[in-house]
Amino acid sequence: MIENRTVAAIIVAAGSSTRMGFDKLMYDLDGQTVLEKSLQAFDMHPAIDELVVVVGENAEKAELLIRKVHKPVRLVRGGATRALSVQNGLAEIKADFVAVHDAARPFVSQAVITAALNAAFRMGAAAPAVPVKDTVKVIGADGMVKYTPDRSGLYAVQTPQCFRTDLYRKALRAVSNGDVTDDCSILEMAGVPVQLTQGDYANHKITTREDLPAKREERQMRVGHGYDVHRLVEERKLILGGVEIPFEKGLLGHSDADVLTHAVMDALLGAAALGDIGHLFPDNDPSYEGADSIELLKKVKEVLDEQGWRAENLDATILCQAPKLAPHIAAMRENLAGALGLDVQAVSVKATTEEKLGFTGAGEGIAAHCVCLLERRGTRL
């Protein structure tokens, strides 16, 4: 066992990503690129002293990413094959041990790295692996099955593959490595035993689009509050929630003065931070004189739709001493729900008196409050 041993990580990132159709190592995974996540895993590991990143055409982008690495790190140009790329990286290190990792395995855990390194410290060569879960068939050139190997002895090898550096270099001198797809094969060909350690099925390699993690739905939610009040006057219709209610007075306003619907619109616009109804429908614009507020609510929905927002539910309260509103509540709910494309069960309308207190209690006007919940959905990795 080497005392005060040093360890270098070679991150192989020189592939062309031809099967992906784009540079998979620069693909965004929840705010970090594939390469960035792989670098971070080894930058964080306490046993790693330095990193060497083997790059290809992505060198310029990789140069920007390695600035976030805290440990000594440098870039090396890759070769025509994976084996040659690793050799280029190996030529740049002086550490006692080397951990060779495919940058396309961004989900490697600290535990997997530790287990492979500890085995390499003891045995000289080690790699993480997981049991093969599917039945494997060996076929001939004609596509016909030749035989089925015993699955119990089959393992899928992962990275990092870890070695004593001088042992790896000696193996390289002893064998031809042009066709190998992993580093352990080189040592196996040289007669060096390799210890397999506990891998992780999550430590899979991103090779095709199907290997990318499924996108998850992102939900952004906002709460809004709206309030409106209008004076009761004679010779005006009383309209609340789009319902004309028989009464001796009506509400004064530029539009139909539907105080309930106005409170609903203000709650929705406020939740989306889109101002208020006065901004959207100015009271000095003659085109809105006597306007049907339910129709205006439909326009508010269109504005929300453009921003990706959808109302999830409303809870409104009307403050009114008279007339009695209970017989009309159901129709109000249906009108509001219809304008917003909601199930009526998502719309609550309540009415209350104020025990003859204040201007509403004195019958001078009617006020309304509304609280709403908006949701905007998208997708992310």
Q: Estimate percent helicity.
A: 25-40%
Classify the beta-strand content into a percent band.
25-35%
What Rg, in angstroms, do the CA atoms define?
A: 34 Å
State the end-to-end CA separation: 43 Å
Structural class: alpha/beta
Number of strands: 19
**Largest sheet descriptor:** 8 strands, mixed
Helix-strand topology string: EEEHEHEHEHEEEEEHHEEEEEHHHEHEHE
Low-confidence stretches: none
Instruction: Give the CA-based shape.
Output: elongated
Give me the number of helical elements: 11
List keywords for this structure.
elongated; alpha/beta; 5-stranded mixed β-sheet; 8-stranded mixed β-sheet; single chain; 381 residues
Descriptive overview:
- By secondary structure, the chain is an alpha/beta fold.
- The chain contains 11 helices and 19 strands.
- The protein has helices at residues 34-44, 59-65, 82-90, 110-123, 165-174, 183-189, 259-271, 277-280, 293-306, 329-340, 358-361, and strands spanning 7-13, 28-29, 32-33, 50-55, 73-77, 97-102, 125-131, 138-139, 145-147, 155-157, 161-164, 195-198, 216-233, 239-240, 243-244, 250-251, 309-319, 347-352, 365-380.
- Strands 1, 4, 5, 6, 7, 10, 11 and 12 form an 8-stranded mixed beta sheet that branches.
- Strand 8 (138-139) and strand 9 (145-147) form a beta hairpin.
- Helix 7 (259-271) runs parallel beside helix 9 (293-306).
- The longest helix is centred in the N-terminal third of the chain and has 14 residues, at 110-123.
- It is elongated.
- The mean pLDDT is 91.
